[in-house]
Design goal:
heterodimer, A: about 450 residues, alpha/beta, D-Maltodextrin-Binding Protein, domain 2, 9-stranded mixed beta sheet, two-stranded antiparallel sheet, 22 helices, about 50% helix, globular, B: about 290 residues, mainly alpha
Chain lengths: ~450, ~290
């Protein structure tokens, strides 16, 4: 298997993506409008649009299907074909394959940096004219979006290309029983967090503070974004004036903080959701991950102890939370009628009623502030969701530059180098800075 | 005329598989060569720009690329000779008649037919520093714990151990096949002449086995240079690029960071290296390989 699977399969994959897998494309991305764009511009006959998304299982899928059928009921002339993909990496590959093959869906979920790549290749359309158009978003409605979230929809060219969809941010999960047993209170600052973690660390009992996945040169992980949150909490930035700012005193301070935790045995590294595994197995006191992990953490714990949820600890400059999740984009190959229908659907999804429905059925966060009061009964039974929603006010998204994935991966590599390989902090961060600058300028290495 | 008819018929029979080979292997391979000359925008091919040998220039001046070659050769050196001699040793044992031989042969071969993705995920858990089997054994023996796949020093030995386990069966079967083709008369003649077991092996079996050994050597080297799946599932090239082989770097550049032209240049260079190395092995070994 290995022999044949290695280089050859990579070559095949390469040729498949490049030569445009028309088979795959015709199998999954098709959308044939049952009406033409002709006429007065109003949508009279049924328009079919396709939406490539990852809400493919469990309650996410149920909520997605339910919202779609609600939309189709209230908009009988638009039919939405959901094209679910099993994961974000598959979604990314599929979108790229169908775009390369010239047969993209009408709309899809996309991260900011993906959207920038699509925009530069002319594969998606800017939404500016829709926003200000007849069926647009009023100034007051624009202000109703969380301000950071609205800003996140613009690419560096100053145009708006996306609408927000499934958003989450970091919270702190903890083992309530472990803290109570040691008479420890829930930390609210990073200083307290470090103290509590070191207090919990006990080699004989095989207990420690927290496990993270630092990420690597081939991709950032939760731990990398956590480090970004720490940099911000210490007053630093990921990007400053359009350039990476990886070697700032604050970035060094944040790294020193993690190194200290690591050397004292309170922080351990792993891959494949190590925070969840260690918390669930009763070995670590904390897991720092997004609110989307709540359900999975509860499963990992399996009722062995009580899990608490609190806001991410604060640093001198606040929480520095990192916004996660994707936005929605419309592809340029779709007909104008389909694009208009996709816009109608997207806009409808972000309206307070729908985003409140979406959030309370999935655990993602509502994209509009006025959705919060609509969710009061939900928050009464799910108080942890309110913690994550409140954090959205200051959570920052990842800047939407092409090459950002590679730049942040360089930061993950620096984290590994300092923690596991004794590389001096300034050396590791200045290397990451150089790599990030190269990546953001489009250089392969 | 008859010969032409016969060979024409042969081509006709060959056509389906040749066509598949042409469409899915040969043409894409040539296309990769073409792409490697461009700053390729695969989302919109029209936006691709011709850069000549630019990608190769960047590649040869990239420390990452040279580092990946070193890692690849580390993997080759760590798995090929060990795999070859281990397989030979086991084959020599398994050629002897003993009770339950069929079952042992099956047990040795079975890892080879398991899917790499599935079994490497099992091995990730075996290597888990906190919950894994290996550290459990070390802990039991009172020895220090190892970070295995999370340690820049141990990650590669970890992947090597897995790869040896997975591929051993294939080499054993090839050696068993080689051993059965050696006539027993030659060994008997050597023993009659007073050769001991080692002398018999070294003077008779080993030289006669050399075509098999050469085959195993070439196949294992090519396989090791192309190995990708276990690196993809077990380490993603990390930690600290300690397992970023050239094959993995190619994947990373093509499908994670989308530097398609650059990745194609890596593919071309890797092809040249593998082809060159195979030729070299055949040339060097030609004088030393005995064909019966």
């Amino acid at each position: 298997m290995t022999r044949k699977n290695g280089h050859k399969s990579t070559m095949i994959k390469l040729s498949l993506s490049l030569a445009g897998v028309s088979l795959v494309a015709s199998g999954c991305g098709q959308q044939t409008p049952s009406s033409s764009a002709s006429g007065s511009g109003s949508v009279s006959k049924t328009t079919t649009i396709s939406f490539m998304e990852v809400m493919s299982s469990g309650k996410l899928q149920t909520a997605m299907k339910s919202l779609t059928s609600q939309f189709e009921k209230s908009h009988p002339n638009i039919q939405v074909n959901l094209v679910p993909e099993p994961s974000y990496s598959v979604l990314e590959t599929k979108i790229e394959a169908v775009v390369a093959a010239g047969d993209p869906p009408t709309m899809a979920q996309a991260y900011e940096s993906w959207a920038n790549g699509y925009a530069q290749a002319g594969a998606i359309i800017p939404l500016t004219s829709f926003v200000s158009g007849k069926d647009g978003i009023s100034a007051s409605a624009q202000k109703d979006f969380w301000p950071q979230l609205w800003q996140d929809q613009f690419l560096p060219d100053g145009k708006m290309w996306m609408l927000p969809f499934n958003k989450s941010d970091f919270v702190m999960y903890y083992n309530q029983n472990m803290l109570t047993a040691q008479h420890l209170s829930v930390p609210t600052t990073w200083t307290q967090f470090s103290e509590v973690c070191q207090h919990l660390t006990n080699t004989a009992q095989n207990h420690w503070g927290v496990s993270i996945d630092p990420g690597s040169a081939s991709g950032a992980s939760n731990g990398t974004y956590l480090y970004v949150a720490l940099i911000r909490a210490f007053g630093g930035h990921l990007m400053q004036n359009g350039k990476p700012d990886f070697n700032s005193p604050q970035a060094q301070q944040a790294m020193q903080y993690l190194l200290h935790l690591y050397q004292s045995g309170a922080l351990k590294l792993g891959t494949n959701y190590p925070g969840q595994t260690a918390l669930g197995a009763g070995h670590s006191g904390f897991d720092l991950s997004t609110i989307a992990s709540y359900y999975y953490n509860e499963q990992a714990i399996g009722g062995k102890f009580k899990m608490g949820v609190a806001a991410l600890p604060q640093g001198p400059a606040g929480q520095g939370n990192v916004m996660q999740g994707t936005n929605l984009v419309i592809f340029s190959k779709a007909t104008p009628t389909q694009q208009q229908a996709a816009w109608t659907f997207m806009k409808w999804l972000t309206e307070p009623q729908q985003t409140a429905y979406w959030a309370s059925h999935t655990g993602y966060l509502p994209v509009r502030q006025s959705a919060i009061p609509l969710m009061s009964s939900y928050y009464a039974t799910h108080p942890y969701q309110k913690i994550a929603a409140d954090a959205l006010a200051e959570a920052k998204p990842t800047p939407p530059y092409v090459g950002m994935d590679q730049a942040i991966a360089a930061l993950g590599n620096a984290l590994q180098a300092v923690l596991t390989d004794h590389t001096p902090i300034p050396v590791a961060l200045s290397k990451a800075q150089t790599q990030a600058e190269a990546a953001l300028s489009g250089q392969p290495s | 005329m008859r010969i032409f008819q016969r060979s024409g018929l042969a081509y006709f029979y060959l056509a389906p598989s040749a066509l598949i080979f042409l469409i899915f292997t040969v043409i894409p391979a040539i296309f990769v060569l073409y792409i490697s000359l461009f700053n390729w925008n695969f989302l919109n091919m029209k936006m691709s720009t011709y850069v000549g040998l630019g990608n190769y220039h960047v590649l040869f001046s990239s420390s990452e690329f040279w580092h990946s070659l070193l890692i690849s050769f580390y993997f080759v050196v760590g798995t090929v000779p060990t795999g070859l001699f281990l397989a030979l040793g086991i084959a020599l044992l398994l050629i002897q008649p003993f009770k339950g031989r069929g079952f042992v042969r099956l047990a040795v071969f079975s890892p080879y037919v398991t899917p790499v993705v599935a079994t490497s995920i099992v091995w990730i858990w075996i290597f888990n520093p906190q919950f894994g089997l290996f550290n459990g054994i070390l802990h039991f023996l009172g020895m220090p714990q190892i970070g295995w796949l999370q340690s820049p020093h141990w990650a590669m030995p970890g992947v090597m151990m897995y790869s040896l386990w997975h591929n051993l069966g294939f080499n054993v079967i090839i050696f068993l096949a080689g051993l059965t083709t050696i006539s027993t008369e030659l060994g008997e003649a050597a023993r009659v002449d007073g050769a001991n077991r080692w002398q018999e092996f070294w003077q008779v079996t080993w030289p006669l086995l050399s075509p098999t050994s050469l085959f195993v050597l070439i196949i294992s080297t090519v396989g090791a240079l192309q190995a990708f799946t276990q690196f993809f599932t077990m380490t993603q090239g990390g930690p600290l690029m300690a397992t970023t082989t050239t094959s993995y770097l190619l994947y990373q550049m093509a499908f994670i960071f989308y530097h398609t032209g650059y990745a194609s240049a890596i593919a071309v260079v890797l092809f040249v290296i593998i082809a060159g190395l195979s030729l070299l092995q055949m040339r060097v070994s030609q004088s030393r390989v005995h064909y019966e």
